[in-house]
Amino acid sequence: MGYDIDRFVGYVNEGLLCSICRDVLEDPLQAPCEHAFCTACIHGWLVHHSNCPEDRQMIDVSLLRPLYRYMKNDLNRLQLHCKNREYGCEMICSLESIDRHERECEYSQIPCSNAGCTVHIERRNLDRHLAVCEYRSRECPNGCGYTILSAEDTQHNCVAELRTELELLRSEMICRVEEAKHEMESRLDSQRRHMVQKESILQNEIEELKSQMSRMMSDVRSLMAAERQHRQELEQAELEKREL
Protein backbone atom coordinates (compact mmCIF):
# COMPACT_ATOMS: atom_id res chain seq x y z
CA MET A 1 0.00 0.00 0.00
CA GLY A 2 1.20 3.51 -0.81
CA TYR A 3 1.24 6.76 1.14
CA ASP A 4 -2.23 8.26 1.70
CA ILE A 5 -2.52 11.05 -0.86
CA ASP A 6 -4.42 13.22 1.65
CA ARG A 7 -1.20 13.60 3.66
CA PHE A 8 0.56 15.48 0.85
CA VAL A 9 0.84 19.23 0.51
CA GLY A 10 0.12 20.61 -2.96
CA TYR A 11 -0.34 18.88 -6.29
CA VAL A 12 0.89 15.30 -6.84
CA ASN A 13 1.63 14.27 -10.42
CA GLU A 14 -0.54 11.41 -11.70
CA GLY A 15 2.61 9.52 -12.70
CA LEU A 16 3.64 9.28 -9.03
CA LEU A 17 0.49 7.39 -8.04
CA CYS A 18 0.37 3.60 -7.79
CA SER A 19 -1.75 2.14 -10.59
CA ILE A 20 -3.27 -0.36 -8.15
CA CYS A 21 -3.92 1.38 -4.80
CA ARG A 22 -4.06 4.91 -6.31
CA ASP A 23 -2.01 6.31 -3.42
CA VAL A 24 1.45 7.87 -3.69
CA LEU A 25 4.10 5.29 -4.57
CA GLU A 26 5.83 3.53 -1.69
CA ASP A 27 9.01 1.55 -2.47
CA PRO A 28 8.13 1.80 -6.19
CA LEU A 29 8.76 -0.60 -9.08
CA GLN A 30 8.17 -0.02 -12.77
CA ALA A 31 6.97 -2.43 -15.47
CA PRO A 32 8.38 -2.45 -19.05
CA CYS A 33 5.20 -0.59 -20.10
CA GLU A 34 6.36 2.23 -17.74
CA HIS A 35 3.44 1.93 -15.33
CA ALA A 36 4.59 2.24 -11.71
CA PHE A 37 3.38 0.41 -8.62
CA CYS A 38 4.12 0.04 -4.92
CA THR A 39 6.25 -3.08 -4.45
CA ALA A 40 3.69 -4.66 -2.11
CA CYS A 41 0.82 -3.85 -4.49
CA ILE A 42 2.36 -5.31 -7.67
CA HIS A 43 3.66 -8.43 -5.90
CA GLY A 44 0.19 -9.05 -4.51
CA TRP A 45 -1.35 -8.47 -7.96
CA LEU A 46 1.01 -10.90 -9.72
CA VAL A 47 0.09 -13.69 -7.34
CA HIS A 48 -3.25 -13.95 -9.16
CA HIS A 49 -2.52 -12.21 -12.50
CA SER A 50 0.20 -12.18 -15.13
CA ASN A 51 -0.46 -8.81 -16.77
CA CYS A 52 -0.28 -5.09 -16.06
CA PRO A 53 -3.41 -3.82 -14.25
CA GLU A 54 -3.38 -0.70 -16.46
CA ASP A 55 -2.90 -1.89 -20.06
CA ARG A 56 -3.08 -5.70 -19.63
CA GLN A 57 0.33 -6.28 -21.19
CA MET A 58 2.03 -9.49 -20.02
CA ILE A 59 4.56 -8.90 -17.23
CA ASP A 60 6.55 -10.99 -14.78
CA VAL A 61 8.23 -10.20 -11.47
CA SER A 62 11.64 -10.61 -13.13
CA LEU A 63 10.78 -7.74 -15.53
CA LEU A 64 10.08 -5.18 -12.80
CA ARG A 65 12.72 -2.48 -12.39
CA PRO A 66 13.35 0.49 -10.04
CA LEU A 67 11.70 3.79 -10.90
CA TYR A 68 13.47 6.12 -13.35
CA ARG A 69 15.86 8.44 -11.50
CA TYR A 70 14.04 11.64 -12.46
CA MET A 71 10.72 10.17 -11.25
CA LYS A 72 12.40 8.97 -8.04
CA ASN A 73 13.75 12.49 -7.45
CA ASP A 74 10.31 14.01 -8.05
CA LEU A 75 8.82 11.51 -5.62
CA ASN A 76 11.40 12.23 -2.90
CA ARG A 77 10.78 15.98 -3.17
CA LEU A 78 7.06 15.69 -2.39
CA GLN A 79 6.07 17.30 0.93
CA LEU A 80 3.74 15.54 3.34
CA HIS A 81 2.44 15.72 6.90
CA CYS A 82 3.77 13.44 9.64
CA LYS A 83 1.53 10.42 10.26
CA ASN A 84 1.17 11.67 13.85
CA ARG A 85 -0.61 14.81 12.71
CA GLU A 86 -3.82 13.66 14.45
CA TYR A 87 -1.90 13.56 17.76
CA GLY A 88 -0.59 17.11 17.34
CA CYS A 89 2.58 16.87 15.24
CA GLU A 90 2.71 19.76 12.75
CA MET A 91 5.91 18.69 10.98
CA ILE A 92 5.93 18.67 7.16
CA CYS A 93 8.84 16.77 5.59
CA SER A 94 9.96 15.63 2.19
CA LEU A 95 9.05 12.04 1.39
CA GLU A 96 12.78 11.25 1.40
CA SER A 97 13.13 12.20 5.10
CA ILE A 98 9.68 11.36 6.49
CA ASP A 99 10.65 7.89 7.73
CA ARG A 100 13.60 9.28 9.72
CA HIS A 101 11.38 11.94 11.29
CA GLU A 102 8.60 9.50 12.18
CA ARG A 103 11.07 7.13 13.88
CA GLU A 104 12.01 9.97 16.23
CA CYS A 105 8.72 11.92 16.32
CA GLU A 106 7.77 13.02 19.86
CA TYR A 107 4.11 12.31 19.04
CA SER A 108 4.69 8.67 18.02
CA GLN A 109 2.75 6.12 20.04
CA ILE A 110 5.26 3.74 21.65
CA PRO A 111 4.82 0.93 24.20
CA CYS A 112 5.80 1.34 27.83
CA SER A 113 9.20 -0.24 28.48
CA ASN A 114 8.11 -1.86 31.77
CA ALA A 115 7.51 -5.60 31.53
CA GLY A 116 3.82 -6.41 31.88
CA CYS A 117 2.57 -2.91 31.01
CA THR A 118 0.41 -2.80 27.86
CA VAL A 119 0.06 1.00 27.68
CA HIS A 120 1.04 2.81 24.47
CA ILE A 121 1.90 6.46 24.98
CA GLU A 122 3.38 9.37 23.06
CA ARG A 123 7.17 9.38 23.14
CA ARG A 124 7.23 12.87 24.68
CA ASN A 125 5.10 11.66 27.63
CA LEU A 126 6.98 8.40 28.24
CA ASP A 127 9.15 9.66 31.12
CA ARG A 128 6.11 11.05 32.92
CA HIS A 129 4.29 7.74 32.50
CA LEU A 130 7.30 5.70 33.70
CA ALA A 131 7.37 7.70 36.91
CA VAL A 132 3.85 6.56 37.85
CA CYS A 133 3.54 3.26 35.95
CA GLU A 134 2.23 0.52 38.23
CA TYR A 135 4.64 -1.91 36.58
CA ARG A 136 7.76 0.14 37.31
CA SER A 137 10.39 -1.63 39.35
CA ARG A 138 12.75 -0.38 42.06
CA GLU A 139 15.07 -1.77 44.71
CA CYS A 140 13.62 -2.47 48.14
CA PRO A 141 14.17 0.60 50.38
CA ASN A 142 14.80 -1.65 53.41
CA GLY A 143 18.09 -2.84 51.95
CA CYS A 144 17.31 -6.48 51.13
CA GLY A 145 18.41 -5.83 47.54
CA TYR A 146 15.23 -7.31 46.06
CA THR A 147 13.71 -5.57 43.00
CA ILE A 148 9.99 -5.01 43.43
CA LEU A 149 7.14 -3.67 41.33
CA SER A 150 5.07 -0.82 42.70
CA ALA A 151 2.01 -3.06 42.60
CA GLU A 152 3.81 -5.52 44.91
CA ASP A 153 4.84 -2.97 47.57
CA THR A 154 2.21 -4.04 50.09
CA GLN A 155 3.01 -7.75 49.60
CA HIS A 156 6.80 -7.49 49.82
CA ASN A 157 8.37 -9.14 52.87
CA CYS A 158 12.15 -8.82 53.13
CA VAL A 159 12.60 -11.84 55.44
CA ALA A 160 10.42 -14.07 53.27
CA GLU A 161 12.16 -12.93 50.09
CA LEU A 162 15.62 -13.49 51.58
CA ARG A 163 14.58 -16.90 52.91
CA THR A 164 13.34 -17.85 49.45
CA GLU A 165 16.56 -16.57 47.90
CA LEU A 166 18.59 -18.57 50.44
CA GLU A 167 16.66 -21.75 49.65
CA LEU A 168 17.24 -21.21 45.94
CA LEU A 169 20.96 -20.70 46.54
CA ARG A 170 21.10 -23.82 48.73
CA SER A 171 19.33 -25.88 46.08
CA GLU A 172 21.65 -24.53 43.41
CA MET A 173 24.70 -25.32 45.56
CA ILE A 174 23.49 -28.89 46.18
CA CYS A 175 22.95 -29.37 42.45
CA ARG A 176 26.42 -28.07 41.67
CA VAL A 177 28.01 -30.31 44.34
CA GLU A 178 26.18 -33.33 42.91
CA GLU A 179 27.29 -32.43 39.40
CA ALA A 180 30.90 -32.05 40.57
CA LYS A 181 30.67 -35.37 42.43
CA HIS A 182 29.33 -37.21 39.38
CA GLU A 183 31.99 -35.62 37.20
CA MET A 184 34.79 -36.68 39.59
CA GLU A 185 33.41 -40.21 39.83
CA SER A 186 33.24 -40.39 36.06
CA ARG A 187 36.84 -39.20 35.77
CA LEU A 188 38.02 -41.69 38.42
CA ASP A 189 36.23 -44.56 36.64
CA SER A 190 37.83 -43.52 33.38
CA GLN A 191 41.28 -43.31 34.98
CA ARG A 192 40.72 -46.68 36.72
CA ARG A 193 39.81 -48.36 33.43
CA HIS A 194 42.84 -46.78 31.81
CA MET A 195 45.15 -48.02 34.60
CA VAL A 196 43.73 -51.56 34.37
CA GLN A 197 44.25 -51.50 30.62
CA LYS A 198 47.82 -50.24 31.04
CA GLU A 199 48.50 -52.88 33.71
CA SER A 200 47.28 -55.61 31.38
CA ILE A 201 49.50 -54.31 28.57
CA LEU A 202 52.54 -54.14 30.90
CA GLN A 203 51.86 -57.64 32.21
CA ASN A 204 51.77 -58.97 28.65
CA GLU A 205 55.02 -57.16 27.86
CA ILE A 206 56.67 -58.65 31.00
CA GLU A 207 55.56 -62.15 30.01
CA GLU A 208 56.92 -61.60 26.52
CA LEU A 209 60.25 -60.40 27.96
CA LYS A 210 60.40 -63.46 30.24
CA SER A 211 59.78 -65.70 27.26
CA GLN A 212 62.50 -63.95 25.25
CA MET A 213 64.92 -64.21 28.18
CA SER A 214 64.16 -67.91 28.57
CA ARG A 215 64.88 -68.48 24.88
CA MET A 216 68.11 -66.48 25.17
CA MET A 217 69.27 -68.52 28.22
CA SER A 218 68.52 -71.72 26.34
CA ASP A 219 70.54 -70.47 23.38
CA VAL A 220 73.42 -69.50 25.72
CA ARG A 221 73.44 -72.94 27.29
CA SER A 222 73.44 -74.54 23.86
CA LEU A 223 76.36 -72.35 22.81
CA MET A 224 78.31 -73.17 25.99
CA ALA A 225 77.71 -76.89 25.46
CA ALA A 226 78.87 -76.60 21.83
CA GLU A 227 81.95 -74.67 22.99
CA ARG A 228 82.86 -77.38 25.53
CA GLN A 229 82.48 -80.07 22.92
CA HIS A 230 84.58 -78.05 20.48
CA ARG A 231 87.26 -77.55 23.12
CA GLN A 232 87.29 -81.27 23.88
CA GLU A 233 87.61 -82.05 20.21
CA LEU A 234 90.54 -79.62 19.97
CA GLU A 235 92.23 -81.19 22.99
CA GLN A 236 91.73 -84.65 21.50
CA ALA A 237 93.14 -83.48 18.20
CA GLU A 238 96.16 -81.97 20.00
CA LEU A 239 96.85 -85.27 21.78
CA GLU A 240 96.65 -87.19 18.55
CA LYS A 241 99.00 -84.68 16.96
CA ARG A 242 101.55 -85.13 19.75
CA GLU A 243 101.37 -88.91 19.47
CA LEU A 244 102.01 -88.68 15.76
UniProtKB/TrEMBL annotation:
Pfam family, one: zf-TRAF
Keywords: Coiled coil, Ligase, Metal-binding, Zinc, Zinc-finger
Coiled-coil spans in chain: 192-243
Any single GO BP term: regulation of canonical NF-kappaB signal transduction
Zinc finger (TRAF-type) in chain: 101-144
InterPro entries registered for this protein in UniProt: Znf_RING, Znf_RING/FYVE/PHD, Znf_RING_CS, Znf_TRAF
Gene3D superfamilies, A to Z: Zinc/RING finger domain, C3HC4 (zinc finger)
Ranges of residues in domain TRAF-type: 101-144
UniProt superkingdom: Eukaryota
GO terms, molecular function: ligase activity; zinc ion binding
Residue ranges occupied by any RING-type domain in the UniProt entry: 18-56
Identification of the protein by name: RNF41 ligase
Species whose genome carries this gene: Eubucco bourcierii
Phylogenetic lineage: Eukaryota, Metazoa, Chordata, Craniata, Vertebrata
Gene encoding the protein: Rnf41
